[in-house]
């Protein structure tokens, strides 16, 4: 803990003075982050570092496995963070960020290591679909780190699907006011691959290229007014 104490002192004495005007502005005007990032709690995955974001720029929610429980499950910190970011802060982008060598994904692949961690095992049920996809749809000889990597990438897609079950997100998607992103951070190379929903693949992106989206509201089939009335008639 000595290093952390030294860090606090260094931040306050040497770093903060250079950014004090920014912090004072944020303290006075409040936060207006440009995006919500839901990432793994892994200490090697640092959202502000990999995006080079400063104070006030990124609203971050971290947990084991970058999981988004479906809305219908019990209320919790992730659901509250999503609702607050979308409704109160008005973020227009949500990023689910997974990563290589993820301990949570290893737990999915090797459930025997979860035996002494019943809470982690229960939490990871929200990722079982990703494991099933890899078991059924990927080559049977996929093993080791490649298998964990595949589960981690599929888990990002599963969690994006869960995001759409949250009413605040679904409503903003319907009005094209929010975009969902899936990112995969490779710890060893420092590279971020981005999921492109148009081609259903993780791709490498460059700064001068448009950022692909995983999910947008565009192209969503709409129920016509006439159909809605007809549906209402059936209900009555
Ligand atoms: Zn992880």
Automatic annotation (TrEMBL):
Keywords: Lyase, Metal-binding, Zinc
Cofactor: record remark: Binds 1 zinc ion per subunit.
UniProt key word Phosphoprotein: no
One BP term from GO: carbon utilization
Catalytic activity: hydrogencarbonate + H(+) = CO2 + H2O
Entry-linked InterPro entries: Beta_CA_cladeB (IPR045066), Carbonic_anhydrase (IPR001765), Carbonic_anhydrase_CS (IPR015892), Carbonic_anhydrase_sf (IPR036874)
Binding-site list for Zn(2+): 40, 42, 99, 102
Function: Reversible hydration of carbon dioxide.
Family per similarity comment: Belongs to the beta-class carbonic anhydrase family.
Name under which the protein is recorded: Carbonic anhydrase
Native source species: Phyllobacterium myrsinacearum
